């Protein structure tokens, strides 16, 4: 479990779009989610929870290989070389359809069929 540092927390507080990548049988599979969804569900030092609407291919990929990468970025966060900062969060994930994360997700997003729960392993700054 990797702690979310101040810069990463600032990025998650300001990012509009989150890009998620899993490994499928034909190569990388890319999906998106909204930054405000992560903020509504909250994130702690060890995990990020997002609503999963369809995400059928993502879930299938995670059953075979639970590794995931997520990119967040914002021009509103000062970068090391100018305006804008980004990060890649690496970890493991699953789509949960019961339990605390699922209950919280369904309460906030009744349309969600599950909660995508990402356990953070590392964070690397980009941009």
Q: What would CATH call the architecture?
A: Roll
Main sheet makeup: 6 strands, antiparallel
Mean residue pLDDT: 93
Measured between the Cα atoms of the first and last residue, the distance is 24 Å
The CATH class assignment is Mainly Beta
Say which CATH homologous superfamily is assigned. Electron Transport, Fmn-binding Protein, Chain A
Q: Roughly what fraction of the amino acids lie in strands?
A: over 45%
- Helical fraction equals 25-40%
Give the topology string: H per helix, E per strand: HEEHEHEEHE
Overall body shape? globular
In CATH, the topology is named Pnp Oxidase, Chain A
Q: Helix count? A: 4
DSSP, total strands: 6
User: Based on helices, strands and strand pairing, what is the structural class?
Assistant: alpha+beta
- Count of the domains: 1
Q: Ranges with pLDDT <50 over ≥5 residues? A: none
Which strand order does the major sheet show? 2-1-4-5-6-3
Query: Whole-number radius of gyration?
Result: 14 Å
